[in-house]
């Protein structure tokens, strides 16, 4: 597309307000129309009329859309946009269920449209740098990926639990870093705050390529933590995604004379390197990737097929927690 892409935004809540700002600031995009049946509580529409629904948004003559409505409405809104021939990015998760996600993905694929899912953590500067270095072979063979995502309850969440809201980020970024889908998961959840949905989860699993994974996620910690650790044959990368920092802990190469340590058949501590990396706002990078996909380069987006796989894994996590069993996932091709 040689001219500015006319973007429509539906959902002007806690996430939509940020998308409105970033779309306006992204070169090549024009925020042409906004919609929210509940109005514009954050005052982000500015000179644009706040339209009542997705049909009115489509009627404004948009090229592409950003969907930031509550999860329960993702399917209906996305299917309407697909039917109208509108390229779309849907905030994570792709839909309220994996079956609904499959219907959404099939609709966009069948219409030949760009369809993406908004997993903004993939655009975190620490994770982008981490994935590049792993792809370049700096870690050697990857053995394990461990994530921790803990902190206080976010008042914006009302329709899902911690698994579908937060753990879904870790499932997506883990499969992306490893370039492998999940094979098995086992999980435990807890309800400690009196809400309908779970507020704590502990997950262990294995990817199809043999990497073992674990995720610790909750809404009940007074200490906010966002960390991804990737351990491999040459050391470990530690990504602090709250700060956008990446540190490498290398395996030691200097022989030790301490008998008790030397007798241990494993690695020793080596050099520690904290990388200086460019730190751009992840949401801005995400919108640039979507713009690039609309212009023919889809390498940066999270595809809807990947979004469906992530949601399938999330449902397997909840199934495991409910049954006490390890859940095996069917191998799927998530290349997009």
Walkthrough of the structure:
The protein is 31% helix and 27% strand. It is an alpha/beta fold and 336 residues long. It has two domains: 137 residues, 3-Layer(aba) Sandwich (Rossmann fold); 173 residues, Dihydrodipicolinate Reductase, domain 2 (2-Layer Sandwich), CATH 3.30.360. Strands 14-13-12-11-7-10-9-8-16 form a nine-stranded mixed β-sheet. Strands 3-2-1-4-5-6-15 form a seven-stranded mixed β-sheet, sandwiched between helices. Helix 4 packs antiparallel against helix 9. It starts with a strand and ends in an 8-residue tail after the last strand. Belongs to the Gfo/Idh/MocA family. This is Gfo/Idh/MocA family oxidoreductase. It comes from Georgenia yuyongxinii. GO terms for molecular function: nucleotide binding.
Characterize this entry briefly:
This protein has 336 residues and is α/β, with parallel strands linked by helices. The chain contains nine helices and 16 strands. It comes from Georgenia yuyongxinii.
Topology (elements, then pairings):
Layout (H helix, E strand, L loop, with lengths): L4 E6 L5 H10 L3 E7 L14 E2 L2 H6 L4 E4 L6 H10 L3 E5 L6 H14 L3 E4 L6 H11 L6 E9 L11 H17 L3 E9 L9 E8 L4 E7 L6 E8 L2 E6 L4 E7 L7 H4 L6 E6 L7 H13 L7 E2 H20 L3 E2 L8
Parallel strand pairs: 1-2, 1-4, 2-3, 4-5, 5-6, 7-10
Antiparallel strand pairs: 6-15, 7-11, 8-9, 8-16, 9-10, 11-12, 12-13, 13-14
Number of strands: 16
CATH topology of the largest domain: Dihydrodipicolinate Reductase, domain 2
Annotated CATH architecture of the largest domain: 2-Layer Sandwich
Helix/strand-derived category reads alpha/beta
Shape: globular
Strand proportion, as a percent range, falls in 25-35%
The CATH superfamily of the largest domain turns out to be Dihydrodipicolinate Reductase, domain 2
CATH class of the largest domain: Alpha Beta
Radius of gyration: 21 Å
Q: Write the element-wise H/E pattern from the N-terminal end onward.
A: EHEEHEHEHEHEHEEEEEEHEHEHE
Q: Give me the number of helical elements.
A: 9
Total separate domains: 2
Family: Belongs to the Gfo/Idh/MocA family.
GO molecular function: nucleotide binding
Domain Gfo/Idh/MocA-like oxidoreductase C-terminal: 132-329
InterPro entries: Gfo/Idh/MocA-like_OxRdtase_C, Gfo/Idh/MocA-like_OxRdtase_N, Gfo/Idh/MocA_Oxidoreductases, NAD(P)-bd_dom_sf
């Amino acid at each position: 597309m040689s001219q500015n892409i006319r973007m429509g935004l539906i959902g002007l809540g806690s996430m939509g307000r940020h998308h409105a700002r970033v779309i306006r600031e992204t070169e090549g995009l024009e925020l042409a129309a906004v919609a929210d049946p509940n109005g514009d509580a954050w005052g982000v529409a500015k000179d644009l009329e706040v339209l009542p629904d997705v049909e009115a948004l489509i009627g404004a003559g948009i090229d592409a859309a950003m969907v930031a409505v509550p999860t329960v409405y993702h399917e209906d809104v996305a299917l309407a946009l697909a039917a109208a021939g509108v390229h779309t990015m849907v905030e994570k998760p792709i839909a309220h269920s994996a079956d609904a996600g499959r219907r959404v993905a099939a609709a966009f694929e069948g219409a030949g449209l760009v369809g993406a899912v908004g997993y903004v953590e993939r655009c975190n500067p620490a994770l982008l740098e981490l994935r590049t270095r792993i792809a370049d072979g700096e870690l050697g063979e990857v053995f394990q990926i461990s994530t921790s995502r803990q902190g206080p309850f976010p008042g914006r969440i009302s329709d899902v639990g911690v698994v579908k809201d937060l753990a879904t980020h870790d499932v997506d970024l883990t499969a992306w870093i490893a370039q492998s889908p999940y094979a098995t998961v086992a999980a435990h959840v807890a309800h400690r705050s009196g809400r309908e949905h779970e507020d704590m989860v502990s997950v262990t699993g294995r990817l199809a390529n043999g990497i073992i994974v674990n995720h610790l996620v909750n809404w009940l910690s007074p200490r906010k933590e966002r960390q991804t650790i990737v351990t491999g044959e040459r050391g470990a990368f530690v990504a602090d995604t709250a700060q956008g920092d990446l540190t490498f802990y290398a395996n030691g190469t200097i022989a030790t004379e301490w008998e008790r340590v030397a007798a241990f058949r494993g690695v020793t501590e080596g050099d520690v390197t904290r990388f200086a990396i460019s730190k751009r706002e992840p949401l801005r990078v995400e919108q640039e990737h979507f713009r690039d996909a609309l212009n023919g380069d889809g390498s940066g987006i999270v595809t809807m097929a990947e979004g469906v796989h992530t949601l399938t894994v999330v449902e397997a996590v909840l199934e495991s927690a409910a049954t006490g069993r390890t859940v095996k996932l069917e191998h799927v091709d998530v290349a997009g």
